[in-house]
Design goal:
single chain; 365 residues; alpha/beta; 37% helix
C-alpha cells in the first residue's frame, strides 16, 4: 500500500470537494449570464465566496478568485509594479520570479525573517512600498512573524502581501492581518484550478489582464466553477482537521528519523512550524536519491518546491538559511487530512532501512 506524504505540493481532494465539483459541473450556466442557468451558477459562486471569506476572516467582496496561488501572487505583485518591492529570501518561486527589481530580505538560521534587516530596507527612501512575506514556508513549515511584519510595514507606510497557501487551514489568525493574501484550493483538499487573492477594502487593485468585469473587475474571465466549488467545500471542511494529532505524528516521525541518523539536520526545527511539515537533510545522502528510494518503497515525499517541472534543484530556502552545504540534501515530508499514524510509522521504517543499508555499503567500501 502506498503512502502519500507530499501534501504541501497538493492535497488529495476531500469527498465534500469532489461532490461539490461534480454538482457544479452539472450546472450549465455562466455566472455572468442573467437567465436562470446563469443565476444558479452565480448563486454557487456567491456561496463559495462566503465560504472562502469565512476561512480568511474577511468580507465576501474582498475575495477575488483566480486560477490558483501562482496567479494570485502575480496579480498582487504586478498590480503595484511602480512601487518598490521587498520579498523574503525564502519565498515561493511565484513570488521570487515575478519582479526582477525586488529586494530580498534575509532570514536567520531558523528560517524566520530578519526584522532588523526589513526595517532598515523600509527606512531607505521613505515612501509607499510593498512587502511580500509568506505566512509559513512551503519547504520547512517555519511560521513567519506576520504580525510584527505588518506592524513594521504599516509604520513605514508600506502594504503587506502574504502568500498563505500553506498556512491557511493549518494555523489561525496572523496571516489574515496582511493587506493582500494568497490562497489556493488544492492545498486545502480542493481540486487544482482555483485560488484566491484576498484584497482588503482599503487596497486599490488594478486588473492585470483585459477582458470582462468578472471578480469586481480585478480578474477578468469566466470563473472555473467546479474548481471554485471544490475550493469552498474544502475551505469549510479544513477547520475540522486534527492539527494537534498531526503535529504529534510529525514530531514522533522526526524523532524516529533523527534517532536513525543522528547526523541529520532538521531545517527550521528550532522555530515555530506548521503542524504537518518536516524538512530534514542527511549530509551524506542527496535529496534525489532519498526521494527515489522512498518512492520505490511506496512512500511519496519531495525535495523542496513542487513547482519546478519535476526538476530537483538545490533548495534556495536551505541556502537562504545558511545551509548551503545541505541545499541538495533536504527532503520534505508533509502530512495532511488523509494521513494516518501508520503512514508516518511506515515512512520512519523506510528511512531507517535505507540509512542502514547506506551505512553498510559505505563500511563495506
Amino acid at each position: 500500500m502506498s503512502v502519500y506524504l507530499d501534501h504541501n505540493a497538493t492535497t488529495p481532494a476531500r469527498a465534500c470537494a469532489r461532490q461539490s465539483a461534480l454538482e457544479a459541473i452539472d450546472l450549465s450556466g455562466n455566472a455572468s449570464s442573467v437567465h436562470d442557468y446563469g443565476r444558479r451558477a452565480k448563486a454557487v459562486l456567491d456561496h463559495v465566496r462566503r465560504q472562502v471569506a469565512d476561512l480568511a476572516g474577511v468580507g465576501s467582496r474582498e475575495v477575488v478568485f483566480t486560477s490558483g496561488g501562482t496567479e494570485a501572487n502575480n496579480l498582487a505583485l504586478q498590480a503595484f509594479g511602480a512601487m518598490p518591492l521587498l520579498v523574503s529570501a525564502i519565498e515561493h518561486p511565484s513570488v521570487l520570479n515575478v519582479r526582477k527589481d525586488a529586494q530580498r530580505v534575509p532570514v536567520g538560521a531558523d528560517g524566520c525573517l530578519d526584522l532588523a534587516a526589513l526595517e532598515q530596507l523600509l527606512a531607505v527612501n521613505e515612501g509607499p512600498k510593498l512587502v511580500s512575506v509568506m505566512a509559513a514556508n512551503n519547504e520547512t513549515g517555519v511560521i513567519q512573524p506576520i504580525e510584527a511584519i505588518v506592524a513594521l510595514a504599516h509604520e513605514h507606510g508600506a502594504l503587506v502581501h502574504s502568500d498563505a497557501v500553506q498556512a491557511a487551514g493549518k494555523m489561525d489568525g496572523i496571516w489574515q492581518q496582511a493587506d493582500l493574501v494568497t490562497l489556493s484550493g488544492h492545498k486545502l483538499g480542493g481540486i487544482q484550478g482555483a485560488g484566491a487573492l484576498i484584497v482588503r477594502k482599503h487596497v486599490s487593485l488594478k486588473a492585470q489582464m483585459g477582458g470582462g468585469g468578472q471578480e469586481l473587475g480585478m480578474r477578468p474571465g469566466t470563473e472555473a466553477l467546479p474548481a471554485i466549488a471544490a475550493f469552498g467545500a474544502a475551505a469549510k471542511d479544513v477547520v475540522n482537521d486534527d492539527r494537534a494529532g498531526m503535529a504529534s505524528w510529525r514530531d514522533a516521525l522526526e524523532r524516529e528519523l533523527v534517532s536513525s541518523a543522528p547526523e541529520a539536520v532538521v531545517l527550521g526545527g528550532e522555530a515555530e512550524r506548521l503542524p504537518n511539515t518536516l524538512c530534514i537533510a542527511h549530509p551524506r545522502i542527496d535529496a534525489e536519491t532519498m526521494v527515489m528510494s522512498f518512492d520505490l518503497a511506496g512512500v511519496a515525499i519531495s525535495a523542496g518546491s513542487a513547482c519546478s517541472s519535476g526538476k530537483m534543484a538545490a533548495s534556495h530556502v536551505a541556502t537562504a538559511m545558511g545551509y548551503e552545504g545541505l541545499a541538495r540534501n533536504a527532503v520534505r515530508l508533509s502530512l495532511g487530512w488523509s494521513t494516518t499514524q501508520e503512514d508516518c510509522q511506515r515512512a520512519a521504517a523506510v528511512w531507517k532501512d535505507f540509512v542502514t543499508r547506506f551505512e553498510e555499503r559505505h563500511r563495506a567500501a
